[in-house]
């Protein structure tokens, strides 16, 4: 005899089956409203912009790498860190194009997309297949930057094309340098034997001798870098690839020499101004009749001359020329003469004493 379920149990079972069927049944379609459509479209557009930004920045780095120049790399970094308004940074980019188009264009492309980098933090917990970045609640700033991204894309394309052109030209140049090596070696040997004849042949337009003459000028003490650059530029303008290749090295030496001269001048100017001020003190002490104090002041003045001014002047003249020292001293005393406090307490400009101090004789 089969057992029969109680009526309440049968009712419960039927209710459960009905509920299960309702879960499995197709749900009614609920179309998204217009606001949701717009939000989704904006999110998709924002994500595509960030993907383009990623491509721009990778392309800029690739252009700099293909170019391979340290100058290009430094310029790109400087341009990318521009802190001025966009218009000023654009002007700066055009100014830098004369030195390196790749550096100027790639750097500006990075600058133009810097504001979007903060939205591109990598999401370590994203599900498989999801976008690489998590969008912020407000994608407005991303959408507003699309014009800058488009500009950056165009610049990166130009930078990559130019970088490949630079690389190809460099390879051609290196091949030509290898071909020029024997004739330059012959010119260099001839210049070692007779420097006068070397210069004369350069003046006549024999390009390997201009290259060799430039080397001789760089080896003088102090180096005659301006003359060396002129000889090298003549050879480069005449299509001697070896001269064009090393010309930037001479430019760098000129920049370093100029920086050194400026540093030496600051040392000489400090010593010269101190000497003028101490001379002014000595004059005031003499006016007040303090003979014992005057002897001490004059002793200090002599020490400033022998221990500070003359060594600083000598170092500057060795790096530049005596004429350059005199020119700078005259301009300094006219425009930036030192000042001191007079007996009455007033500030006095020491133009005359400055001129006398810088004219002090040194051994």
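^ structure tokens above, recovered residues below v
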């Amino acid at each position: 005899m089969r057992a029969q379920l109680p009526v309440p149990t049968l009712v419960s079972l039927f209710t459960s089956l009905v509920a299960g069927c309702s879960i499995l049944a197709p749900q009614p379609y609920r179309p998204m409203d217009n606001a949701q459509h717009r939000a989704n479209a904006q999110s998709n557009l924002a994500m595509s912009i960030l993907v383009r930004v990623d491509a721009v920045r990778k392309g800029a780095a690739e252009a700099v790498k293909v170019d391979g120049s340290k100058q290009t790399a430094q310029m790109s970094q400087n341009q990318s860190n521009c802190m001025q308004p966009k218009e000023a940074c654009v002007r700066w980019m055009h100014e830098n194009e004369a030195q390196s188009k790749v550096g100027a264009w790639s750097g500006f492309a990075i600058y133009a997309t810097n504001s979007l980098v903060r939205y591109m933090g990598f999401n370590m917990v994203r599900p498989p297949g999801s976008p690489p970045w998590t969008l912020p609640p407000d994608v407005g700033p991303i959408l507003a930057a699309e014009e800058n991204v488009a500009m950056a894309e165009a610049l990166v394309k130009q930078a990559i094309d130019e970088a490949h052109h630079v690389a190809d030209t460099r390879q051609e140049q290196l091949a030509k340098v290898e071909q020029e090596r024997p004739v330059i070696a012959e010119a260099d040997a001839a210049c070692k034997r007779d420097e006068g004849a070397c210069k004369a042949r350069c003046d006549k337009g024999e390009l390997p001798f201009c290259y060799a003459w430039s080397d001789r000028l760089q080896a003088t003490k102090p180096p005659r870098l301006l003359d060396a650059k002129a000889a090298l530029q003549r050879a480069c303008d005449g299509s001697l690839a070896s001269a064009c290749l090393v010309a930037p090295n001479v430019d760098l030496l000129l920049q370093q020499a100029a920086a050194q001269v400026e540093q030496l001048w600051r040392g000489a100017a400090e010593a010269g101004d101190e000497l003028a001020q101490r001379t002014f003190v000595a004059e005031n002490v003499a006016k007040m009749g303090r003979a014992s104090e005057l002897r001490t002041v004059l002793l200090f003045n002599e020490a400033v001359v022998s221990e500070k001014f003359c060594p600083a002047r000598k170092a500057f003249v060795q790096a530049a020329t005596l004429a350059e020292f005199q020119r700078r001293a005259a301009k300094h005393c006219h425009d930036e003469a030192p000042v001191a406090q007079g007996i009455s307490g007033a500030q006095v400009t020491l133009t005359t004493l400055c001129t006398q101090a810088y004219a002090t004789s040194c051994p």
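The first helix runs from residue 7 to 24.
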